[in-house]
Design goal:
This protein has 24 helices and two strands. By secondary structure, it is mainly alpha-helical. It has a single domain, classed as MFS general substrate transporter like domains (Growth Hormone, Chain: A). The chain has a two-stranded antiparallel sheet with strand order 1-2. The chain is globular, with a radius of gyration of 22 Å. 52% of the residues are buried.
């Protein structure tokens, strides 16, 4: 008699699954409308790469600060309560952008980002283990990969909004011209800066309204309760002791920190790479960020399918290896101002030919102009990242049982990797060129050594799952 396969999502849980999955898109939007703001604030306020990267420090720092309190909150109350509080903080953070713009104070924007991500920490701490619990444990990793597939859809929308509602409407005056203007007329400089900041504020204010509507939907919705919700005893110290003895979990938290680091660094600094290496505008560079995200989305669905046939550790190892190889080409491969100038000429020639002709140029030009191969491989690296977050998450939480809520907090806190590593890469970019004896690399190129190191760590975790088969069971679904 053949054994009946476990369903990916039980029929009775399809509606709650869809509702909770919508949150993945909601925080994806916040992540990727924010990444291009690092370059935008640098130009508007005339600050260094390191200072502008503090946007990511504040944004992802909120995860590190609030993840554990969020876990205790949902352990004491419920997943639904945690989601509602997360949405409330998310909305408040968005609305804080309005007074931050009036004040024209960078620290006020950083505070707004921090409050936003305190809310996102609640949402991620709730949603990921909630999705894992919505069905059989055998299909948990695939179920989380499916839910996570909708995260980059929100990210793509966030990128489009950043490009079309923000970057393309900012004053085109470059950094040098702004510096000169500030030296001659502070009043004129402040007027331009205030206008640019107002452009940034509007999408976040609209986002605050959207998040408030989501709060109302969840408030009146019925979400399933499980055995974990009935156990409200915090039991913190014994739980932490059990988790600290779980090597699979501890290594997963460390690996997740490096994964988030590589994701945020690549998506944040693709604009600087395209600007400084190829001379492209921020808006043109952001278009390639969107292409990278489209590839990320497509790869997520493909990898979710491949998990039916390939061991998750093997797939993680292979993708990390390929990702590292691609980043090496970003560091040492082709890319120069002449290639960028030729590419911009192609864009100008196609400007009157309509949207589809322009899109064709964007897609073909990097492959026609060999000097842009570094940018191409930076884009392709996103395809390798798609599997990583949910797979590392699912492997690390495998068999933690009733400790899942607090264990989830550790994996959400690992998002602090984006908080720590992005300013490190920004600091490297602020340095002079690097003489490596056999060649000289610009600081922008050299900074991508950090994403390369991250891929090595992820590959090592994938290898560990293969060499310790008892720790991670083979999924033959």
């Amino acid at each position: 008699m053949t054994e009946k396969k476990a369903k990916l999502i039980p029929p009775t849980l399809i509606l709650p699954f869809i509702l909770v999955t919508s949150l993945f898109a909601l925080w994806g939007f916040a992540n990727d409308i924010t990444n291009p703001m690092v370059a935008a604030f640098k130009n508007i306020l005339l600050i260094s790469n390191f200072e502008s990267s503090l946007v990511q420090f504040a944004f992802y720092g909120g995860y590190g600060f609030m993840a554990f309190p969020a876990a205790l909150f949902i352990k004491r109350y419920s997943y639904k309560s945690g989601i509602l509080l997360g949405l409330l903080l998310y909305a408040i953070g968005c609305f804080c952008f309005i007074p931050a713009g009036w004040m024209m104070a960078f620290w006020a924007f950083l505070f707004s980002y921090f409050v936003m991500t305190c809310g996102l920490a609640f949402l991620e701490t709730c949603a990921n283990p909630f999705i894992l619990s919505m069905g059989d444990a055998e299909t948990a990793t695939r179920r989380l990969n499916l839910a996570q597939s909708f995260n980059p859809m929100g990210s793509i929308l966030g990128m489009f909004v950043a490009k079309n509602m923000i970057l393309e409407h900012l004053n085109p005056m470059d950094e040098a011209a702004r510096t000169t203007l500030r030296g001659t007329s502070v009043e004129a400089f402040n007027k331009i800066a205030a206008s640019d900041l107002a452009i940034i504020i509007l999408p976040y204010a609209i986002l605050g309204v959207v998040v408030t509507l989501f709060f109302c939907v969840f408030f009146f919705s019925r979400l399933p309760r499980n055995a974990e919700d009935e156990d409200r005893n915090l039991d913190v110290l014994p739980t932490l002791k059990r988790l600290m003895k779980n090597a699979q979990y501890i290594e997963g938290v460390i690996t997740q920190m490096f994964y988030v680091g590589v994701q945020i660094m690549c998506w944040t600094f693709i604009i600087q790479y395209a600007e400084k290496t190829l001379g492209l505008t921020k808006a043109d560079a952001q278009f390639y960020n969107i292409i990278a995200m489209v590839m990320f989305v497509s790869s997520r669905f493909i990898c979710t399918f491949l998990l039916k046939f390939i061991n998750q550790g093997m797939l993680l190892l292979l993708l990390a290896f390929v990702g590292g190889f691609l980043i090496l080409n970003t560091i040492f491969g082709g890319g120069n101002m002449q290639a960028g100038a030729e590419f911009k000429l192609l864009l100008q020639q196609s400007a009157e030919a309509g949207f589809w002709a322009q899109l064709g140029v964007y897609l073909k030009a990097p492959f026609v102009i060999s000097g842009m191969s570094g940018l191409v491989t930076l884009i392709l690296a996103s395809s390798c990242m798609s599997l990583m977050f949910p797979t590392i998450y699912g492997v690390a939480l495998r068999d933690v049982g009733k400790d899942a809520k607090i264990a989830s907090a550790g994996l959400v806190m690992a998002i602090v990797g984006g908080c720590l590593m992005t300013p490190m890469q920004g600091w490297i970019m602020d340095q002079s060129d690097f003489n490596l004896l056999f060649t000289t690399l610009s600081s922008v190129r050299m900074s991508f050594i950090l994403p390369f190191v991250c891929f090595i760590v992820i590959a090592a975790y994938g290898y560990r799952t293969l060499t310790h088969p008892k720790r991670v069971a083979q999924e033959s679904l």
